[in-house]
Amino acid sequence: MINDDYDEDSHIYEYDADCEGANVASWYIFNEWTDFEDVAKKKEILEDLFSIGLSSIITLFYRLSLRANTPTDVYYEKGDHPHPAIRILYTTHMYFERVRHGLTNIVELDYERIISNAKIISNAVLLSNNVKFDYDKILETNYDSITAYIEKLHEGVLKKENSVLVYLHKNPA
Question: Whole-prediction pTM value?
Answer without folding.
Answer: 0.85
